[in-house]
Amino acid sequence: MYEYQAIKVKVAGHKAIGLDEDEVWYASKLEGRTAILLIKAGIKFTPHVKFKVISPNGTWFHYTVDFLFDAPQKPLGCHKWISFLEVKGVLTRHDLLRLSALEYTMGLKGFIALPSMVDLWERDGLI
Fold first, then answer.
1. What is the rounded CA–CA span in Å between residue 20 and residue 79?
2. Which ranges constitute the DSSP H helices of 23-92?
3. Which of 78, 84, 93, 99 would you call most buried, defined as having the most Cβ atoms within 10 angstroms of its Cβ?
4. What phi and psi, each to the nearest 5 degrees, are found at residue 85?
């Protein structure tokens, strides 16, 4: 069993980045670790933002991103400026297709961070 799945965690400190609610629940330890890193770096974001997007085959579906930034960011190890961040314990083809669908529908560029990337950010900094 992966350390990152099915263990919800509550993270405090969101008022420091301008959110009304100070504590937010995250779906995994990995998401919680990432939220803490973003808060410590002073990066303003909104957690769990839901979008209605269309796939290349014309099917509409809902996609909730983990972290939607108030302004584009370029985290360490990311080759482009991004508007949102996803964290995944395990990457699947489906994750990549959803990322592409959001860019196609809304024009938002995103990045999927795996556990090794979150480890890097904890060790060397997010930006």
1. 32
2. 29-40
3. 84
4. -130, 135
Q: Which of 123, 125, 122 is nearest to 32 (CA)?
A: 122
Q: Which of 117, 14, 106, 122 is nearest to 51 (CA)?
A: 106
CA distances (Å), 120 to each of 19, 48, 57, in order? 26, 23, 36
Residue 52 and residue 27 in contact, taking contact as beta carbons nearer than 8 Å: no
What end-to-end distance do the CA atoms of the chain give, in Å? 31
Tell me: pLDDT of 3 over 60: no
Q: How far is CA 123 from CA 16, 38, 56, 71, 117, in A?
A: 22, 14, 38, 24, 10
Helix, strand, or coil here: 79?
coil
For residue range 55-85, what is the model confidence (pLDDT) as tens digits?
878 999 999 999 999 999 999 999 999 999 9
